[in-house]
Design a protein that fits this description.
Blueprint lengths: L9 H5 L21 H4 L11 E5 L5 E6 L8 E6 L5 E3 L12 H32 L8 H46 L26 H15 L12 E4 L5 E6 L2 E6 L6 E5 L5 E5 L5 E5 L4 E5 L5 E5 L2 E2 L9 E9 L5 E7 L17 E7 L6 E7 L11 E7 L15 E3 L6 E3 L3 E2 L5 E8 L4 E8 L7 E7 L13 E2 L5 E6 L6 E6 L4 E4 L9 E5 L5 E6 L8 E6 L5 E3 L6 E7 L5 E8 L2 E9 L7 E2 L17 E6 L5 E7 L10 E7 L17 H14 L2 E6 L8 H4 L8 H17 L2 E11 L1 H12 L6 E5 L10 H7 L26 E6 L7 H13 L6 E6 L12 H16 L5
Parallel strand pairs: 39-40, 39-41, 41-42, 42-43, 43-44
Antiparallel strand pairs: 1-2, 2-3, 3-4, 5-6, 6-7, 7-8, 9-10, 10-11, 11-12, 13-14, 14-15, 15-18, 16-17, 18-19, 20-22, 21-22, 22-23, 23-24, 25-26, 26-27, 27-28, 29-30, 30-31, 31-32, 33-34, 34-35, 35-36, 37-38, 38-40
Length: 890
């Protein structure tokens, strides 16, 4: 059969073009047509960012986990700030001496399988696109090849099985003849000569009947399911690391083992190799050993002789319920001087009194239907919704003196803090120790009481800590997720995050005077405290003071709050760390014109930053055709709303072009859409494509409801989800018509997840505002969504009844007047597919059949990715917008 010969884009994708640094929209020089298949390539252009960044105590070395573009796993790298050289400490080749050959072979085999599958999926997508353009394309070629390979595999398998059967039959015949000869000799009878054995091939079974095509397709489906890649199939790399207290050396964790690297050597050495889940905690104060955890204990080992000592056995908490006595250690934090440790432990949930069997799971289980087999089947997923009674595990916090090397096991002290668990939302921050080990601190949040507390304790066993900061009521609901108190190096002040001025910023509690004061002024977010100068006079923070779309790094004088920007604008700095000597910062940083990489940044002005990684495929330059412009507008209340816009080539303010708005509208902890390093697939990449290919004006916006714009924005949905955003979208529509050359009758609205809810809410309540909408995976009934989110962003809950039903979209659906495309993955465990089914039913009952279409991924989860890949999703979007909004006119 003749196969379609399509033009390969591989050569073009390997050619690297330089990225323009201009902040204004620029067209790339490459004249070739931008396609969805090249933009949403199966092998992504984006690489994984560096993580687990950590400086050595001296500040000379920076360790991080990272791998070049396309390589699996995260390997350990160490950069020498003095020499400028970077050393790679792990890789499949470097860890060969510590790995089973079978595992290395499996990792390599699966890596090659991934590359083959990526190439095949890319070829399929290009062929499918050509088919849609009317070209002669053989879309069955891959199935033909796979079935041919499968037939060969079956034939080889049958050949091996027949040979085995022949050998077994020959062996059985020989054994039978020998037994008969032995019996004849014993009976004094003559031994008959046995006939020669038939050739092995003669014993082979008759060939089975050739399978029909549909049978081969079933066999192929089974094989593909069996061979499907799992995360554990690929080389994992390193998972954790810690630096020594004084020396330039570190310990890292790799596949159930602990390994050591010293700065005077280029190789690592194995410390412990087990199949248990070991977690490194810290070095001992003298750097002569280390502390680590297994599944239930805290242990200490010395490098000399590697003697292992249990320094905290499994915890026993005084509890009337015998079954709940054992508390499992969840985390261990050692003071820097190594004399004290904090242990956070939780009790297991137990069966009801008098019952037996496994402990109940929190919440409930809901069924998700799988249609991949001949008959549909259901799988259960855990779900905790607003009207579920909570089953919070009891917890206990212990402060213990670390026993000496030869000390006998001491009696377990009483916990310094306990929480009974049960029906309520309770959160606790990591424990922080002062550098001299004299104090510890942590924070708690009780949602039902709306109570935030910061505790300060002395390093004494069994002594309760004091509550030094308390806030009740209107506390920024996103604060607790990022709240981790910490001490200044001199131990005189405790730095805590508060939102007393509506923005999450650091405050200082003076331990001696017991006075609290703010450290920053201004309306911006600064909820990441990175560290301090050694003299405790300044701290380092990440904040969006100068640009709400970019977190920069700042040095802050603690005396007066003066801020000095250290990073380069418009970089967005993520996962930042600072060296203990205050000389260096490191962060993943970049922006639209320079994709993010790990950068080493000096805290002294005038020194250029160093780029330490090259994470992304340079072929990205081939599809990077247009850059967006930043814009902001005032809503009806005077709030400044951030957005960015892709304007097509030849755009004029007098145009009347079709346009699409992409929105989200819900809080995301510390994220939103309008960020200078965000290449969101729909809001950025597809928007660029529609502007380049079809002349659309494409806007991505952050209405009220988003995080990182202050508590008032993040809490805008409380008891009115969707309403503030709809007002802002209406104001944006007006702004676009006035300023962006947009046809008011041809503006579409699109969103995913919360944005899918928001799109529907707006289309139902303002039915004449937008010409059409696409709503992806939207939670239409908040009483069905996870209560950890809905209970803090939508409205107060009542665990006796689903009171969030008042915010359901179903009663509003009858207001729809314009075309709406509903999109969902049918195996979505996050926003249940039933939410879309239920609103679809309401739309059908309201007679909206001509206006509504469903686009479903039978195997897709919350981000789709089953039968519908990213490129296929956006093909559907492109067709929908062109049908509903038309093409741009010259």
């Amino acid at each position: 059969m003749a196969r379609w010969k399509f033009l390969s884009v591989a050569a073009a994708l390997l050619a690297a073009l330089s990225l323009s640094a201009s902040p204004q929209p620029v067209l790339a020089q490459n004249p070739s047509v931008l396609t969805l298949e090249s933009l949403f390539r199966d092998k992504p252009y984006r690489g994984e960012p560096a993580r687990e960044l950590a400086f050595s105590r001296s500040g000379r070395y920076l360790a991080y986990l990272w791998n070049p573009h396309g390589e699996p796993g995260s390997d350990l790298y160490v950069h020498d700030t003095r020499s400028g050289k970077t050393l790679r400490l792990t890789s499949p080749a470097l860890m060969r001496d510590y790995e089973a050959p079978e595992d290395l072979e499996r990792f390599e085999k699966k890596r090659l399988q991934r590359e083959r599958e990526q190439a095949e999926r890319q070829a399929r997508e290009e062929a499918q696109s050509a088919y849609l353009r009317g070209e002669a394309v053989d879309l069955a070629q891959w199935e033909v090849e796979q079935i041919a390979a499968l037939k060969l595999e079956f034939a080889e398998k049958n050949k091996r099985e027949d040979a085995q059967k022949s050998a077994e039959k020959a062996e059985a015949d020989a054994e039978k003849r020998a037994a008969e000869a032995l019996a004849a000799r014993r009976a004094g009878k003559p031994v008959t000569t046995a006939p020669a054995a038939a050739p092995a091939s003669a014993a082979a079974s008759a060939p089975e009947k050739e399978k029909e095509l549909w049978e081969w397709r079933d066999e192929l489906k089974k094989k593909l399911a069996k061979d499907k890649l799992k995360p554990t199939d690929l080389y994992p790399g390193v998972s954790e690391l810690v630096w020594a207290r004084q020396r330039d050396e570190l310990i890292f964790q790799y596949r159930g083992g602990l390994f050591r690297w010293q700065a005077n050597g280029n190789r690592v050495t194995s410390l412990l190799g087990t199949q248990r889940q070991l977690r490194i905690v810290a070095y001992t104060p003298d750097d002569q050993g280390f502390v680590y955890m297994d599944e239930s204990r805290v242990l200490r080992a010395r490098f000399a002789g590697m003697a292992v000592q249990v320094i905290n056995r499994e915890l026993i908490h005084a509890d009337e319920d015998e079954a709940a006595k054992k508390y499992r250690i969840e985390s261990t934090v050692l003071s820097e001087d190594g004399r004290w440790m904090s242990l956070l432990a939780r009790a297991p949930l137990v069966p009801p009194a008098g019952g037996s069997g496994p402990a109940p799971k929190p919440g409930r289980q809901v069924e998700i239907m799988n249609y991949g087999e001949r008959f549909a089947s259901a799988k259960k997923v855990d779900r905790e919704v607003s009207d579920n009674k909570r089953m919070q595990q009891p917890l206990a916090l212990y402060v213990r003196r670390v026993p000496g090397l030869d000390g006998a096991p001491a009696r377990q002290p009483a916990p310094v803090f306990t929480q009974a668990g049960g029906d309520g939302w309770f959160e606790i921050s990591p424990v922080a120790w002062s550098r001299d080990g004299s104090h510890y601190a942590f924070a708690t949040w009780e949602r039902e009481k709306e109570l935030l507390r910061v505790y300060l304790g002395r390093a004494e066993e069994g002594t309760k800590p004091d509550i030094v900061i308390e806030r009740r009521g209107d506390v920024h609901h996103e604060l607790v997720n990022v709240f981790s108190p910490r001490f200044t190096p001199d131990g005189k002040r405790l730095i805590a995050l508060l939102s007393d001025n509506d923005f999450r910023q650091p405050w200082a509690w003076d331990i001696a005077s017991r006075q609290l004061k703010p450290l920053l002024k201004g309306e911006f977010e600064a909820h990441q405290v990175l560290g301090f100068t050694p003299d405790s006079r300044a701290m380092f923070v990440a904040a969006n003071r100068d640009d709400a779309a970019a977190m920069n790094l700042y040095k802050v004088e603690l005396a007066d709050g003066a801020m000095q920007a250290l990073g380069a604008a418009p970089d967005y700095h993520r996962n930042a760390v600072v060296s203990q000597d205050g000389r260096w910062l490191a962060a993943n940083a970049g922006h639209w014109a320079q994709r993010p990489e790990l950068k080493l940044i000096s805290t002294f002005q005038g020194q250029p930053s160093r780029v330490l990684t090259q994470s992304h495929d340079p072929a990205w330059a081939q599809v990077d055709r247009l850059r967006p412009e930043r814009l902001s507008f005032k809503n009806r209340y005077g709030d400044s709303i951030a957005a960015y816009v892709f304007k097509p080539s030849g755009w004029q303010g007098s145009d009347r072009r079709p346009a699409v708005i992409y929105t989200y509208g819900g809080p995301l902890n510390d994220r939103h859409l309008v960020e200078t390093d965000s290449f969101q697939p729909t809001g950025y990449l597809f928007a660029m494509y529609m502007a380049v290919r079809h002349g659309y004006v494409m806007v991505t916006v952050d209405p009220r409801g988003h995080s990182n714009y202050g508590g008032r924005f993040a809490g805008a949905n409380w008891e009115q989800p969707g309403q503030p955003q709809t007002e802002d979208l209406e104001d944006l529509h007006r702004h676009m018509v006035a300023k962006l050359g947009v046809d008011p009758a041809r503006v579409g609205l699109n969103g995913w997840s919360f944005g899918g809810f928001q799109t529907q809410y707006t289309m139902y309540t303002k039915p004449d505002l937008f010409a059409a909408g696409i709503a992806g995976a939207g939670p239409t009934e908040w009483e069905n969504y996870n209560s950890w989110y809905s209970g803090r962003t939508i409205g107060p809950v009542d665990r006796k009844k689903p009171v969030l039903r008042k915010y359901s979209l179903l009663p509003l659906a009858k207001g729809l007047k314009k075309p709406l495309l509903l999109v969902h993955g049918m195996l979505d465990p996050n926003v249940l597919y039933q939410d879309t089914v239920n609103v679809y039913r309401a739309l059908m009952e309201a007679g909206k059949q001509p206006l509504v279409d469903l686009f479903l991924d039978p195997d897709g989860e919350h981000a789709m990715g089953g039968a519908v890949k990213t490129v296929g999703l956006h093909r559907k979007y492109e067709a929908f917008w062109l049908q509903q909004l038309g093409r741009a006119q010259p």
